[in-house]
């Protein structure tokens, strides 16, 4: 069901086949076990690294393969298509979210020490931004990093951190400057720090969720954690700007993963309705069912076209906020709708706890919250089409 597209060459098609083969041979057979273990094991990271799948966007001089963005879109669609939300979250946070900031802004020393091993799958990365009182509204972030001699001293707690339980390092959003008392929204004074997970004073608590079981989600408390001032990623107090830029990529990633998930839903439902005898034929012969699947497939194709267009815009200008937000909004909401409709079409079997569609149903629900809620996406789009047009 993968669409032919003007954005995809024969090279991308060949890459899709090899990724699909690798995932079905090496990852899918172990996925249930990793869901039970609630995290992705070290050996899986190594396998992904050996296959070059953790550094597709990173430059060759840092150990990446410097492939164009559409190779990543292909990889992410295929990763989404395996139907395990926790796995896809852990892998994409490592390869496209946390390490993105190292590749773009970190010193060459930090890149050698952390990015290179992360691309090889020898170190696992997490991106720790969210706090109990700072989710959609990052101006409420309170985790602090104060300079003391040659170190930053970090205090605060991050929550819902994907890969949090087993990450070897965190890309951590901290407040390095207190907001002015009269500041309406304190987006300034935020910085990004690299924190090695072996530093004393870090306490991790696993968080049990509705789905995304293999994602290794954890709450992380930092108590007087010291890291060298040289662990600053980019410039001091520029973290908010870096994150806003990085979120464009994060939203594209979420969209591409969701497309794969929708494809998986439709494929598994097609298999079911074709083989399920009902009335004078099969479920697949009933017109209402045919039309529902036709609608979903049409929505998949149109959302894919939007996502590819957003990726193309991102390549031209990393500040393609409107298009990336549209793609994230449309794809993650479609993923929820598709999972809901497909579970309905698979009937009671689909509702069994161990069924493929049941897992996809519960996993898809997180997509419209994590990495920016749908309402925030609508706010960004509205701001661009209404307020910016007025300015
Ligand atoms: C499975 C999972 C994995 C995650 N992984 C990570 C991670 O690795 N690292 C990390 O830092 N964070 C992570 N998060 C946190 C995620 O980024 C936040 O959930 C997200 O930023 C939204 O924040 P919140 O959940 O606190 O919701 P809140 O900000 O409390 O918002 C709650 C709801 O209010 C509504 N809302 C919010 N803002 C607006 C608005 N402006 N207008 C109208 N309605 C609004 C939305 O419906 C929203 O869902 C993860 C979350 C989940 C669920």
UniProtKB/TrEMBL annotation:
<keyword id="KW-0560">Oxidoreductase</keyword>
<feature type="domain" description="Acyl-CoA dehydrogenase/oxidase C-terminal">
    <location>
        <begin position="237"/>
        <end position="385"/>
    </location>
</feature>
<dbReference type="Pfam" id="PF02770">
    <property type="entry name" value="Acyl-CoA_dh_M"/>
</dbReference>
<dbReference type="InterPro" id="IPR009075">
    <property type="entry name" value="AcylCo_DH/oxidase_C"/>
</dbReference>
<dbReference type="InterPro" id="IPR006091">
    <property type="entry name" value="Acyl-CoA_Oxase/DH_mid-dom"/>
</dbReference>
<comment type="similarity">
    <text>Belongs to the acyl-CoA dehydrogenase family.</text>
</comment>
<dbReference type="InterPro" id="IPR009100">
    <property type="entry name" value="AcylCoA_DH/oxidase_NM_dom_sf"/>
</dbReference>
<keyword id="KW-0274">FAD</keyword>
<dbReference type="InterPro" id="IPR036250">
    <property type="entry name" value="AcylCo_DH-like_C"/>
</dbReference>
<feature type="domain" description="Acyl-CoA dehydrogenase/oxidase N-terminal">
    <location>
        <begin position="9"/>
        <end position="122"/>
    </location>
</feature>
<dbReference type="InterPro" id="IPR050741">
    <property type="entry name" value="Acyl-CoA_dehydrogenase"/>
</dbReference>
<dbReference type="Pfam" id="PF00441">
    <property type="entry name" value="Acyl-CoA_dh_1"/>
</dbReference>
<dbReference type="InterPro" id="IPR037069">
    <property type="entry name" value="AcylCoA_DH/ox_N_sf"/>
</dbReference>
<dbReference type="InterPro" id="IPR046373">
    <property type="entry name" value="Acyl-CoA_Oxase/DH_mid-dom_sf"/>
</dbReference>
<protein>
    <submittedName>
        <fullName>Acyl-CoA dehydrogenase family protein</fullName>
    </submittedName>
</protein>
<dbReference type="Pfam" id="PF02771">
    <property type="entry name" value="Acyl-CoA_dh_N"/>
</dbReference>
<keyword id="KW-0285">Flavoprotein</keyword>
<dbReference type="InterPro" id="IPR013786">
    <property type="entry name" value="AcylCoA_DH/ox_N"/>
</dbReference>
<feature type="domain" description="Acyl-CoA oxidase/dehydrogenase middle">
    <location>
        <begin position="126"/>
        <end position="225"/>
    </location>
</feature>
